[in-house]
Amino acid sequence: MVVVMRSGADETDIDKVVKAISEVGGDAFVSRGKNQTIIGLVGDLTQFAEMPLHAFPGVEDVIRVSKPYKLVSMETHPRPSTVWVGDSPIGRETVTLIAGPCAVETEEQTIDACKMAKSAGATILRGGAYKPRTSPYAFQGLGEAGLDILHEVARDLQLPFVTEVVTPADVDTVAAKADMLQVGARNMQNFQLLKEVGMAGKPVLLKRGLTATIDEWIMAAEYIAHTGNLQIVLCERGIRTYEPMTRNTLDVSAVPVAQSLTHLPVIVDPSHSGGKRELVMALIKAGIAVGADGIIVDVHPRPEVALCDGPQALIKDDMLALRETVARFAAASDRQVASAGQQRASGAWGRSATA
Ligand code: PEP
Ligand code: MN
After folding, report:
1. Are residues 24 and 110 in the same domain?
2. How high does pLDDT run on average in the chain?
3. How far, in Å, is the centroid of ligand 1 from the Cα of 55?
4. Which of the residues 29, 91, 94, 135 has the least number of beta carbons within 10 Å of its own beta carbon?
5. Sequence-separated (6 or more) residues with CB below 8 Å from residue 39
6. 101, 208: one domain
7. Does residue 162 contact residue 181 with C-beta atoms inside 8 Å?
8. Cα 310 to ligand 1 centre (Å)
9. pLDDT digit string, tens, across residues 274-315
């Protein structure tokens, strides 16, 4: 069950609900939004059935949630949320382009890649400083030095950036500089990391695990939400199937399915799914056509010498096509391409970063 508090409810109202729940042996998890607070109730539902929660001061609604995920469930949240990364929205009304290098390799390469991204209309930059690599002998990323490079380049270009954090010990370091924290596919069920990332209070990009079901993916998001942080964006990045011709299989159906189950924005990664430059544009089209709220794409000035994922990176010559493809497919779906510095509609539920 979920208790939705009125926008004017104060701490005393919230405490009364929490106290009443604990008195009957339940647990209450409070998610404080800018405009509204919701309280997830965990325990035996029969415990709460007799309680007149509707009558408590400050309570707007009491919702019985049938899904195992409560805070991120569509049942809890009447409208899809928009997550703000800096001044860039990710939500159901826009299509947001996130682009940048797979990995930060050098300052020069990062500047070039991020300029390419911006020229294609990206409003959020991406780049990996801490890389989760299959082989311990592969380039592991520049770590904090890479984070500093990305931070400086993003500041110069006046765009926010998302970067991956692979271990709980690095969360504070990454959160101090990044505008959004990425939990990679390989860490989707690293529950300790999910909790730490949630507690950092920054928006989180949660990639779907290579072999995760949609339910498992959403439950992972619930771990983040459980810390009180509802600024979560889901990313479908391809799943492992029997098909070896592509790096992974982009599960396009996961986009509308996840959107029907949760209020969270869902974006698509055409780079890590297809794994080949020549597939990226087609998968971008598919992603937007199926309703994705954004695209996150790898770009590189010289993929032939890239230290990570060169074969899937778009190049300078692709940037115009990238911009036009996103614009054309967004327009065909009656959506605008998100622009940097977009105005926030104030007050409405689901429009604020912390909704
Ligand atoms: C990435 O985005 O750089 C990445 C490693 O992606 P994934 O976790 O989806 O493999
Ligand atoms: Mn990559």
Report:
1. no
2. 93
3. 47
4. 135
5. 2, 3, 5, 14, 17, 18, 21, 28, 29, 30, 31
6. yes
7. yes
8. 13
9. 999 999 999 999 999 999 999 999 999 999 999 999 999 999
| Ligand nearest to the CA of residue 129, numbered in listed order | 1
Whether residue 216 is found in the same domain as residue 112: yes
Nearest CA to ligand 1 atom 4: 184
Residue 76 CA to ligand 2 center (angstroms) comes to 34
Confidence of residue 18 (pLDDT cuts 50, 70, 90): very high
The best mutation among 110, 194, 207, 248 to test binding of ligand 1, ranked by most ligand atoms within 8 Å of the C-beta, falls on 207
**Contact indicator for 261, 229 with CB cutoff of 8 Å:** no
With respect to residue 95, please indicate whether it lies within any of the assigned structural domains: yes
Q: Which atom of ligand 1 is nearest to the CA of 131?
A: 5
| pLDDT tens digit sequence for 45-81 | 777 777 889 899 999 999 887 788 989 998 888 689 9
C-alpha atoms less than 13 angstroms from C-alpha of 193 in its C-beta half-sphere: 20
Instruction: Identify whether residues 53 and 130 lie together within a single domain.
Output: no
Read off the CATH number of the domain in which 232 is found.
Answer: 3.20.20.70
User: According to the model, what pLDDT value does residue 24 have?
Assistant: 87
> Which ligand is closest in space to the CA of residue 310?
2
* Residue 89 sits in the same domain as residue 190: yes
CB 71 within 8 A of CB 29: yes
Q: Which atom of ligand 1 is nearest to the CA of 103?
A: 3
Q: Give the pLDDT of residue 343.
A: 67
User: Whose alpha carbon is nearest atom 6 of ligand 1?
Assistant: 184
**Is pLDDT at 347 greater than 80 in this prediction?**
no
Clarify whether residues 204 and 314 are in a common domain.
Answer: yes
Ligand 1 interacting residues, C-beta cut-off 6 A: 102, 128, 132, 164, 184-186, 207, 237, 269, 272
Instruction: Specify the ligand 1 atom closest to the Cα of 309.
Output: 3
- Specify whether 113 is located in the same domain as 35: no
Asked whether the whole model's pTM tops 0.85, one would answer yes
pLDDT in tens, 170-190: 999 999 999 999 999 999 999
* d(CA 66, ligand 2 centre) in Å: 37
Strands 59-63 and 2-5, how do they pair?
A: antiparallel
Cα separation, 64 vs 346, whole angstroms: 28
For the segment 7-20, the average pLDDT, to the nearest whole number, is: 92
Q: Are residues 6 and 129 in the same domain?
A: no
